[in-house]
Design goal:
The protein has 365 residues and is of the alpha/beta class. It contains eleven helices and twelve strands. The chain has a single domain, classed as TIM Barrel. Strands 3-4-5-8-9-10-11-12 form an eight-stranded parallel barrel, surrounded by six helices.
């Protein structure tokens, strides 16, 4: 299958790209204890731009000095020093001709290391399934979170908007991605098992999506219409890998149609294998369902797409761009290698051990 489609121009809103290839957000816990990105992170992101990726989406960036931080040594966007550090990274990417979006997140009940406060919070006092991740310095079961109050939820919405504004105005990012996937706070609100609320933030699928919609609205009001705003959505979670939406395609219809009407510019969908059926007994992938129910949105697809043929297949099924995680880690120059028919390195999981920080081997000489 020809890879030429991967190298055609693309755009999200008013931002244009030289190809359809993005680096997916990957948590690398390499900032200072105070959440300040350093030279190692600058060199790491710069290398992806050097390697030909048109868009780089950052690792998740925490949004407040309350309960949003997910992991120790995660970078934040809550003060001038943090924003200035990220600006050096954005500037480096821009010098290579690339674009960079800031992914902003709140950990919710999955926090494993918070520099500011003890404890965790979530939509309901439900212990997350699974175990904390050792390569992010976690150990044992997740604690039971404290249920957020209505006023705290409003504070979180405002913190998302504050972080987005700081990322654009002070750090020079080209766009904003809201982390609504993988089991973190916004996904906890969307998921029926973890959201047992009886107020306006709980109930059916549409009601459980309400917090994400309010975050989108607040960010759009703050950054304006010209800055691309998107949201990452998944079924699986870092602590519940094979989770599926309970109502299958009907949930997909509700989620994607409401997000299409929310004012976002793009959806970033992540599945374990993006080309496979999203639900048992239904041949459609999550990408195909998103294209069906959000026909005008730009779609970024992520999930085991490091094989160029698979990537092209998913573009043909409705995606507009492809985001690579492990493929990008193994090949910072994946676009150049594929374009010029050079062999690809296989992903070596040892790069994430014992801690998933950026290793010397990932920094160019």
């Amino acid at each position: 299958m020809s890879s030429e489609l991967l190298f055609s121009a693309s755009r999200i809103g008013d931002v244009s790209f030289q190809n359809r290839l993005a680096v997916a957000p990957m948590t690398r816990v390499t900032a200072s204890e105070e959440g300040i990105a350093g030279e190692r992170m600058r060199a790491y992101y710069d290398d992806f731009a050097r390697g030909g990726f048109a868009l780089i989406i950052t690792e998740g960036i925490y949004i407040d000095k309350a309960w949003s931080q997910t992991y120790a040594y995660q970078a934040g966007m809550v003060n001038d020093k943090q924003a200035a550090a990220w600006k050096t990274i954005a500037d480096a990417v821009h010098l290579r001709g690339g674009k960079i979006f800031a992914q902003i997140q709140h950990s919710g009940a999955l926090s494993q290391g918070n520099h500011y406060l003890e404890g965790t919070v979530g939509p309901s006092a439900v212990r997350p399934v699974g175990k904390q991740m050792a390569f992010y310095r976690g150990e044992g079961e997740y604690p039971v979170p404290r249920e957020l109050t209505g006023s705290e939820i409003q504070d979180i919405i405002e913190s998302f908007a504050d972080a987005a504004s700081r990322a654009v105005t002070d750090a020079g990012f080209d766009g904003i991605e809201i982390h609504g996937a993988n089991g973190y706070l916004l996904d906890q609100f969307l998921t029926d098992d973890t959201n047992q609320r009886t107020d306006k933030w709980g109930g059916d699928t549409a009601a459980r999506l309400a917090l994400s919609l309010e975050v989108i609205k607040a960010i759009r009001n703050r950054v304006g219409k010209r800055i691309p705003v998107g949201i990452r959505i998944s079924q699986g979670k870092v602590n519940d890998f094979f989770h599926k939406w309970a109502q299958g395609e009907e949930d997909a219809r509700v989620v994607f149609s409401q997000l299409a009407a929310s004012g976002i510019d793009y959806l970033h969908l992540t599945e374990f294998e993006a080309w496979k059926p999203a639900f048992e007994g239904n041949p459609a992938s999550l990408v195909a369902l998103a294209r069906k129910y959000a026909p005008d949105l730009t779609i970024i697809a992520n999930g085991n797409l490091h094989d160029p043929n698979r990537a092209v297949q998913v573009l043909n099924e409705g995606a507009d761009m492809i985001a690579l995680g492990r493929g990008a880690l193994a090949n910072h120059d994946w676009p150049h290698r594929v374009k010029y028919h050079q062999p690809l390195n296989a992903f070596n999981s040892s790069i994430l051990a014992p801690i998933a920080d950026i290793k010397d081997s990932e920094i160019p000489a």
